[in-house]
Specification:
The protein is mostly beta strands. The protein has a single domain, classed as Immunoglobulin-like (Sandwich). Helices cover 3% and strands 29% of the residues. The strands form two sheets. A four-stranded antiparallel β-sheet has the order 1-2-5-4, with no helix packed on it.
Length: 135
């Protein structure tokens, strides 16, 4: 069996490790690698899917809607700031409270690794804990 390092896929973007509610209108976002701050703090690079057909509150897309530029989080609804100087932990704060009991999935896209730019895909994977129930 060949165990050459070239056989393993190279991760070229940060992966969301966890998204969880930490306050009435706040979500903690945690990545696996240091991010490019400009792309990680661009709230338009984030979507929140709800478990209902028509999104309400902080949700931007319902269960069957595709992600698009028109249904990402808008700057007048929320913002994202670093939690510390790790470039891996952020707090997303909304102008409205997260509805209690709703199921939400945080879907970041286009977030680059520190020192890089141009990533055009998703920032979650099969092991991402990006779902939470509003408290």
């Amino acid at each position: 069996m060949n165990t050459n390092q070239n056989d393993s896929p190279m991760i070229t973007h940060p992966i969301l490790l966890e998204a969880r509610q930490i306050g009435p209108n706040q979500i903690l976002i945690n990545y696996d690698q240091r991010t490019d701050l400009a792309s990680a703090m661009n709230v338009s690079n984030y979507w929140i899917r709800s478990n209902v057909e028509r999104p309400v509150g902080v949700a931007t897309v319902g269960m069957s809607a595709a992600l698009s530029a028109s249904n990402s989080i808008r700057p007048d609804v929320g913002m994202i700031t670093p939690l510390d100087d790790s470039n891996m932990r952020f707090v997303m704060t909304f102008t409205v409270n997260i509805m209690s009991g709703g199921m939400y999935t945080v879907l970041p896209c286009f977030v680059n690794l520190e020192g890089r730019s141009g990533y055009k895909g998703e920032n979650w994977g099969p092991l991402s804990r990006n779902m939470f129930i509003g408290i």
